[in-house]
Design goal:
The chain is an all-alpha fold and 209 residues long. It has helices at 2-29, 34-55, 65-72, 81-94, 102-120, 124-140, 143-154, 160-177, 182-202.
Length: 209
């Protein structure tokens, strides 16, 4: 529980921190030639995701739902799967193409838990659930959301206390690494863009000279 919470939360916070920093820098860089540079970033990130997918034998393609489900059901994932899925998810988000955070985060968390379960000789299924709770709580910094979602997904109430502890540890670890929750930061960016567009539309047109 402690390992999955702390390590999962640390990786979750790292994902959030790297995604926000990269997104902000790319937005500033895109200001001069937006269309050309947006396409260039998307192409580079897409090639990176494809290369990771080929190197992993196709495991990192898609949302990772099948891999997470297998881990929860007791099938161990390759120990390096979580790192590959982490990088693929980061590149997907940085590319600017909507691909979702929820399902990939659960698969990364399941990979972390599966690897830790192998290290500690624990149940792969239980460790995968704890890893999902710790990582997702670290990404979104919402421990109750992470705990409730995973509990509802599995329908298994045997590990309630362990899932709560892993979520809280993931949240606490993430707060020490990154003070800014991912969804809050992204919402501020969207709100700022909407305000700028409204001001630009409301600006009076220059009159005839």
């Amino acid at each position: 529980v402690i390992a999955c919470g702390i390590i999962g939360g640390g990786f979750g916070a790292l994902f959030s921190l790297l995604a926000l920093k990269a997104t902000r820098r790319i937005r500033r860089w895109n200001t001069g030639q937006p269309l050309r540079r947006v396409l260039l970033v998307a192409a580079i990130c897409g090639l990176g995701v494809a290369a990771i997918g080929i190197a992993s034998g196709g495991l990192t393609f898609g949302t990772g739902y099948a891999q997470a489900r297998g881990a929860v059901e007791g099938t161990p994932l390759p120990w390096f799967f979580f790192a590959e899925k982490f990088l693929a998810g980061l590149l997907s988000m940085v590319s600017g193409i909507p691909g979702g955070i929820f399902a990939p985060s659960l698969s990364v968390g399941a990979g972390i838990g599966s690897s830790l379960g192998l290290v500690f000789g624990a149940s792969t299924g239980a460790a995968a659930l704890l890893g999902m709770a710790g990582y997702f709580a670290g990404v979104v910094q919402a421990p109750m959301t992470a705990f409730v979602i995973i509990l509802e997904m599995t329908g298994n109430h045997d590990n309630v206390i362990a899932l709560m502890l892993a979520s809280m540890l993931g949240y606490g670890t993430a707060r020490m690494i990154s003070r800014e929750p991912l969804y809050h930061a992204l919402s501020r960016v969207f709100i700022a863009e909407a305000i700028r567009r409204r001001r630009a539309e409301a600006a009076p047109e220059p009159g005839p000279a």
